[in-house]
């Protein structure tokens, strides 16, 4: 693991609620300095968990002063009706009162089982205990405390130098299915040592999401709890102006951080044995590029073929053919790890079963779909469908 | 098995090509009397197999005289480029010449592996051999000859009485994934002992497809070879006029035949252990009803929960919530085999884990999603995702 850069003004503490995961830390508090700016983006699912509703409200009306993120794993507090809202308000209010800050500055996040009442006092106790252990360099413990059935913590840290200035970026995320209503959700928190305007922060956040968490799929599902937060600490020595070289370089590094976190999620997806990148190019427009990439990436037949290490070009070709945005297959080329599979809608004469079989043995698979109808492109990352995927997801909830 | 009604004018013969399936019959010839009318509907996949292209052309330009259907299993003749077209034209021409009928009256269908050259002489020999064994009552052998990895033949037969007249309907189909590019495709052939206009025939065919083969999904994929044919033999004693009671009753019986064939396909889907009916009602329009039904039916998390006999209402609720046509969940109710799961977007107070667990033990599961925003409804049938599904589909092609 490369060096993890601490971010001035950001501190972490974690503790255990002693509920679903025994005495494992499952409750994380992140304190954020008062000069910081936050950008939050949340699930598109119409079923929004109580903490998501609360976080959206609070972020839209932040007051001056320090901010706090409260993250619990083990219970999603989703589909719990008014009780869920009351519960989340309760622990946010208590923590705000403890810290003597505005309640609106307390932002909650949850991941875990859907539809079970939150053991609110247990988590409140854990948050209080976590507040006694705040540290500026607690990244690994923080990234571990928010996990559900992920098999490892996911942290990415970068430093980008522009002239004499250097900007640090460190983030962590969790999630091993796009949705795991039992142990649900994608959560991501990225912190940047720099001062940016709120507009610029939001813009960069949107840009980064489009090519990272909005470009991965494990099972096509979307959780009621998905949340991504990008925080800048407002360091006055590291002011980034819109249109500057600093902005361009920092944006690029933030985007890379998001993409690498997304890749860590897919690599640790439920039952995954392969990391698959589906890159669609020469599409007539962005909609087509994205649509075809997701159609291929979400095809159970492509995903099971990948698991079987079968360079089954017929399934990939057929998935492209059924995509609603496709007019014809005349200009179509498909490659796998650089090897030609399909040309003009049928088997490429250069295709070699033997060579393709060998290429499929790799853990990382790149499927290139060249549509030949324009100049737009989009890449989706996904995992394969294994027997373990079925076992994990057919396991009874309790 | 109920009585199978023979259809005057329709005869079957089958034989083996001695290719993929050894000496199992894999080649079927259906001869159709000259008074008959045919309606054919084909895959929406832009990748159309050579026999599909040829069948569409021929059906649009049928000549007077008898017609012949040629169906082979084991090779889909898809993605084979110009050679595929040449091959299918070759055996159609030879059979037309043998029978001294118009080549346009020979309609080809294929199911099997994609992208392998058709062993055209082997299948031509088999078709010729099949022609020597024509019988009017050979339904079971016919339904068996077109199978690929289906585990059993699928035949539905009905008789509908209107006044003194009785109309017979008998059909068979194959298909155990919506697409199985290795052993691909849904094929369906239904024959009716009646005389209908071509317009009425097409109308009934469309109506029947909407609620049968267009309302099932195993894996969300669509084959390049999917074909459905509805044939009336033109029996002059059984004339059906548009707008008559006979039309209404016969249409109903044909629709039922299609629905029951579709149900047989889903029940025999790859690795299926459950037959799941997802019924969406009180939708604001037909598009919403269909969209929500397919979103739930194709959710891998719902399908794996069903396999695990887990009444996981959180996953169903979450799938509904992420459907793009959904505005809010305020009026939402979800039931499973009649038991209340969700009310107004969260757990129904009447929900009982114990009762739900018991209900889930059944092989047939009905999921009712009541949206409460209108009066439209749609039902999709699907199967669960089991370890066998993964094993079957991750098996290497050759």
Chart the SSEs and their pairings.
2 copies of one chain form a homodimer.
Chain A: E1 10-15, E2 27-32, E3 37-42, H1 50-59, E4 67-75, H2 81-99, E5 106-113, H3 120-131, H4 139-145, E6 154-162, E7 165-174, E8 187-192, H5 198-211, E9 216-217, E10 227-232, H6 245-267, E11 275-283, H7 286-298, H8 300-307, H9 313-322, E12 333-336, E13 339-343, E14 346-347, H10 353-359, E15 364-370, E16 376-383, H11 387-394
Helix pairs in contact in A: 1-2, 2-3, 5-6, 7-9
Would you summarize the structure shown here?
The structure is a homodimer of 398-residue chains. Chain A is an alpha+beta fold.
Defining traits:
L-amino peptidase D-ALA esterase/amidase, Ubiquitin-like (UB roll), 7-stranded mixed beta sheet, 5-stranded mixed beta sheet, 11 helices
């Amino acid at each position: 693991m490369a060096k993890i850069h601490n971010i001035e003004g950001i501190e972490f503490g974690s503790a255990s609620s002693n509920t679903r995961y025994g005495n494992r830390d499952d409750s994380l508090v992140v304190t954020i300095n008062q000069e910081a700016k936050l950008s939050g983006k949340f699930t598109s699912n119409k079923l929004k968990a109580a903490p998501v509703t609360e976080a959206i409200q609070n972020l839209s009306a932040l007051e001056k002063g320090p901010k706090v993120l409260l993250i619990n794993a083990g219970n999603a507090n989703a589909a719990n009706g008014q009780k869920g809202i009351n519960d989340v308000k309760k622990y946010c209010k208590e923590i705000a009162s403890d810290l003597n800050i505005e309640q609106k500055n307390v932002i909650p996040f949850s991941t875990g089982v859907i539809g079970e009442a939150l053991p609110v006092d247990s988590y409140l106790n854990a948050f209080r205990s976590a507040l006694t252990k705040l540290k500026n360099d607690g990244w690994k413990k923080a990234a571990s405390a928010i996990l559900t059935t992920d098999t490892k913590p996911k942290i990415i840290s970068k430093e980008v130098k522009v002239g004499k200035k250097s900007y640090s970026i460190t983030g962590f995320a969790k999630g091993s299915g796009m949705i795991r209503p039992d142990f649900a959700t994608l959560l991501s928190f990225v912190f940047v040592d720099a001062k940016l305007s709120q507009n610029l922060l939001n813009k960069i956040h949107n840009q980064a999401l489009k090519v990272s968490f909005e470009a991965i799929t494990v099972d096509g599902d979307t959780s009621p709890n998905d949340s991504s937060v990008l925080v800048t600490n407002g360091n006055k020595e590291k002011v980034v102006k819109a249109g500057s070289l600093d902005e361009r370089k920092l944006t690029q590094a933030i985007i890379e951080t998001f993409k690498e976190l997304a890749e860590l999620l897919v690599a640790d997806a439920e039952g995954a044995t392969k990391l698959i990148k589906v890159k669609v190019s020469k599409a007539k427009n962005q909609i087509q590029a994205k649509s075809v990439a997701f159609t291929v990436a979400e095809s159970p037949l492509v995903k099971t073929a990948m698991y079987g290490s079968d360079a089954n070009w017929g399934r990939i070709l057929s998935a492209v053919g059924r995509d609603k945005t496709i007019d014809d297959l005349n200009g179509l080329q498909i490659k796998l790890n650089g090897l030609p599979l399909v040309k003009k809608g049928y088997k490429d004469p250069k295709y070699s079963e033997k060579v393709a079989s060998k290429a499929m043995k790799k853990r990382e698979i790149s499927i290139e779909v060249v549509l030949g109808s324009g100049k737009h492109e989009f890449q989706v990352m996904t995992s394969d469908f294994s027997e373990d995927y079925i076992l994990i997801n057919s396991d009874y909830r309790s």
